[in-house]
Amino acid sequence: MSGAAPNLFIVGAMKAGTTALHGYLDQHPDIFMSDPKEPGFFADPAPDAAARDAYLALFAGGAGQRWRGEASTRYTKAGDSGSVAGRIAEVAPEARILYMVRDPVARTLSQYLFNRRIHAERRALCQAVREDPRYRRVGDYTGRITPYLDRFGADRVRILSAEDLEADPQAVLDALFFWLDLPSVPVPPDLRKNTATGGLRRHGRLTAWLLRAELEPLRHLVKRAGAAGLARHAWDRVNPPARAPVTQDEIAELRTMLAADIAAQRAGLAPLMGGQAPDWNSGHG
Asked: How far apart are CA 278 and CA 103, in angstroms?
């Protein structure tokens, strides 16, 4: 790729804080983050020239910045994440890779609520997780990130905890800016996050219809016009939030179901995160 190609990739995990991280990084004057957040270009094994040009155009505004990034969770969500890592490495071999991890129970619950909102998921929580292997596959953090470690090396891959980012965003970003060889800048503590629970609405079909991919340009036009807050207020009145269709007992059952997964992920991630395993034993989610 020529021109202002990206060299910073948030590759996942889905529902693990990538929207917040994308927003925080975009606060730095020497980092340009794409809009839309998730172009997903490298998930396509054979993009045509028009798709390639459209992708590069997303980063034209960042030609003067040291880092140009995007945050496509499809890069680790798909079953062939190794192929995706290879395609990124072919065009950006010196890229830096960021990967967010989150308490598997909280992340799985968020994915489930997202699927209810967008993909007409109607099974009970634990039934859905038992019957659909994609819930657990996305949460196989060590398996999902290994192809990127193999391609880019551990020095170019950084794994971050969603819980740490929420608890102290400035400390996490200071360390991340240092890793990117950039000076630290203050970041706002209250960036709007992408929460699946908050996205559940009384009129689910209307929500799914308005969140179709083909309406993405209209949503970005509203945001660029500075009318996003007004649009959210109107949306809350027309289609108010609905109660989450999950009980605390179901969440406790899910934690029991995923107990072995949690232990395995903590053990696998510890050496990849400076010897400190994420604390997922305190009942997050």
From this structure: 8
* Residue bearing tokens 């009980």: 247
Which of 160, 114, 148, 161 shows the shortest CA–CA distance to 134? 114
Q: What's the whole-model pTM score?
A: 0.85
Q: How far apart are CA 230 and CA 265, in angstroms?
A: 41
| Cβ proximity of 98 and 11 under 8 Å | yes
Q: What angle do CA 245, 23, 148 make, to 5 degrees?
A: 85
Superfamily of domain 8-103+131-192+262-272: P-loop containing nucleotide triphosphate hydrolases (3.40.50.300)
C-alpha–C-alpha distance, residues 235 and 215, integer Å = 15
Q: Judging by DSSP bridges, how do beta strands 96-101 and 8-10 pair with one another? A: parallel
Dump pLDDT digits (tens) for 248-279.
Answer: 999 999 999 999 999 999 999 999 999 999 99
pLDDT of residue 190: 75
